[in-house]
Amino acid sequence: MTDNEMTLTRRGIVGAMAAAGAAAIVNPTSTAQAQAAPKTFVMVHGGWRGGWCWRPVADRLEKLGHKVYTPTLTGLADKSHLLAKGIGNAIHTADVVNLIKWERLENIVLVGHSLGGMIITPVAQEVGSKISSIVYLDAFLPAVGDAALSTASQVSRDAIAAAIERGELGTKPLPAKLFGDSEKNWAWIDELSTMHPLLTLTDKCTAVDGREKIAKKTYIRAHGYPNPAFNAALEKTKADKTWKTYELQSGHDVMIEMPERLVEILLEVA
Q1: Per residue of the chain (270 residues), what is the pLDDT tens digit?
Q2: Catalytic site residue 156?
Q3: Which of 139, 151, 173, 174 could pair with 48 as two cysteines, CB 3.0-4.6 Å apart?
Q4: Are the CB atoms for 132 and 109 separated by under 8 Å?
Q5: DSSP code per residue over the chain
Q6: The pTM is what?
Q7: What φ, ψ does residue 89 adopt, rounded to 5°?
């Protein structure tokens, strides 16, 4: 082989190596970018809470470039001045559906915590085509005809029954301690929690097929809070291959107790 031929061969090898290296760099980058594609999260709080309870999770998701909406339902927290008779699941459903409509949201990861499960179910019925993933976070998973009153824990049922007997507009919040939350979080959870509209606790679920049509469905159980209805929901979803399930050793307010882990799960199922 001549000197010129050897030089050309070396150049060819170096060129091939450079091309391969470039390809190796581009492909992982493209993959990483695809995995980091921004998602849209709509997260619905549970009883006595408000949009404020999602802040530890929302901050983390937003720092990663995702869009996050945490509406406060009518009559609670920063909307507590609107508490009135007649506020039921239909109004709370409209709170979320109208947010989705007016913000022109698509490809949504819809999350419902606790009593929020009674709301995201009819939301899925109305705007299921806009939801790519639905997540029940230690939440009611209602069947047709179910109401929170019929499936709640005994402590919650007693509180609801007492409020109905007194003719009140809502039920007073139970202490965070009863939900298995960490003592360090009791003060601010209790301070910001407000009465919950009574009618939402007795309204019955009318349809669930919208929920079942969503391709990605997830149930997350926080075992730090004893609740037979949530245990039953976990077992039901674990037996259904169309659902993903997670079990956490956390108090009920997972978004406050374990925000980092919850963010990891939400991105996994998004």
Answers
A1: 544 444 444 444 444 444 444 444 434 333 333 456 999 999 999 999 999 999 999 999 999 999 999 999 999 999 999 999 999 999 999 999 999 999 999 999 999 999 999 999 999 999 999 999 999 999 999 999 999 988 777 777 787 778 888 888 998 999 999 999 999 999 999 999 999 999 999 999 999 999 999 999 999 999 999 999 999 999 999 999 999 999 999 999 999 999 999 999 999 999
A2: no
A3: 173
A4: yes
A5: --HHHHHHHHHHHHHHHHHHHHHHHHHHHHHHHHHT---EEEEE--TT--GGGGHHHHHHHHHTT-EEE-PPPTTSGGGGGG--TT--HHHHHHHHHHHHHHTT--SEEEEEEGGGHHHHHHHHHHHGGGEEEEEEES---PPTT-BHHHHS-HHHHHHHHHHHHHT-SEEPPPPGGGGT--HHHHHHHHHH---EEGGGGTPBP---HHHHTSSEEEEEEETTS--HHHHHHHHHHHT-TTEEEEEE---S-HHHH-HHHHHHHHHHH-
A6: 0.86
A7: -65, -30
